[in-house]
Amino acid sequence: MRLLTICPSRDRPELCKRMLDSFNATKSKDTEIIVYVADDDPQLDKYKEILNDINHIIGWRRSLVQVLNFISTDRYPGVFYYQEINDDHIYLTKGWDRILINTIEAEGKGWGIACANDLMTNEPWEVARHPSAAIISGNIVRTLGYFVLPELEHLYTDTYLRDIGEGIKALFRLEGVVIEHCHWLSNKAVKEAYVAVYDQEKFRVAYRVYHKWIKYQRKLDIEKLLKARDGL
After folding, report:
1. pLDDT at 41 over 80
2. What distance in Å separates the CA atoms of residue 69 and residue 148, rounded to the nearest whole number?
3. Between β-strands 171-181 and 89-91, what pairing exists: parallel, antiparallel or unpaired?
4. Among residues 221, 68, 230, 210, which one has the least CA distance to residue 143?
């Protein structure tokens, strides 16, 4: 396995199936996926039907960041590349994984973060600042000890990945590779879980965590990654 895609999903088995169908239709042979579903999910039985032949974990309810870190460091710690995907994405470019990984290897010496065009904006700079469905090299995860800063929950995760990629000068966005993020098309804004994620207090907490990292830790993390990459 060259790439492990990690998908936390909750209360949206139909969207998860749509994502999985597009994933299986476009991925390369060395890419695999694992879906994480909480054991208290209201549609757990439906998930069990959909995930019958799909690698998955049913466990206690974790945040997005907890799922990413748990799977990438505890369950599958030695993978070359990891990807975080939401169930409201659709893979549209055949061989997207090979293209993104080859870019990291060719332009980042195997260290970096690469993302596709998610079709959410016509301003490339904005998408590059917030990488969607990003692939991260496993050496970054192992050097820092986690996929995403553990103090985060959901918000600012893409911003954090952007800063890591830019810090080591290895953030790559490929316009021609499309993984559509159907963020608003799913009407999830009316869902209780969605509203909870974007609660204003959660914004304030995430803002403080992120800016504390910027002020006190980002420089140290970047230095650690550069030393590991360059063998210093």
Report:
1. yes
2. 7
3. antiparallel
4. 221
What domain range is 34 assigned to?
3-230
Domain total in the chain: 1
* Cα atoms found within 13 Å of the Cα of residue 211, Cβ hemisphere only: 6
pLDDT exceeds 80 at position 185: no
Short-list 94, 125, 117, 220, CA closest to 167: 220
- Please identify which residue in the block is written with the tokens 């997207």: 96
Beta strands in the chain (DSSP E): 3-8, 31-38, 56-59, 81-84, 89-91, 113-117, 135-137, 171-181
Contact 111, 168 (CB under 8 A): yes
Return the biggest CA–CA distance within the chain: 51
Least confident of 24-33, 50-59, 74-83, 183-192: 183-192
What's 217's domain CATH number? 3.90.550.10
**pLDDT digit string, tens, across residues 203-221:** 899 999 999 999 999 999 9
Question: Tell me, what's the pLDDT at 189?
Answer: 45
> Is residue 130's pLDDT more than 80?
no
Gap between the Cα atoms of 217 and 223, Å rounded: 10
Contact (Cβ atoms closer than 8 angstroms) between residue 204 and residue 153? no
Would you state the structure tokens that stand for residue 50, as one six-digit string? 């959909």
